[in-house]
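Example record used in the benchmark description.
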Amino acid sequence: MVKISELQAKDVVNIADGRKLGQIVDLELDLRSGMIRSIVIPAESKLFSWFSSSQEWVIPWKQIVKIGSDVILVRMDSQIFDAVPPTRSVPKHDSL
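Model output (structure tokens):
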């Protein structure tokens, strides 16, 4: 079993071009099945998070090739990451 915090500490690397994509900032879950649907990584470095954009890459779980001790290998078309990332629609929650 792997904790979410352990996944977040690993670098995500695209094996198609060897590019380091970043680290996981979020997961998308299927609440009906309890399965992880995708991982979410920032489109750019969030070293200074208050200056970063809210754009993120959503990588489907089926694109994960291997989860190692310090890296998560994914297989994605490298041209996808050269394009402007789509913004992820985050559902709004009603305030209490």
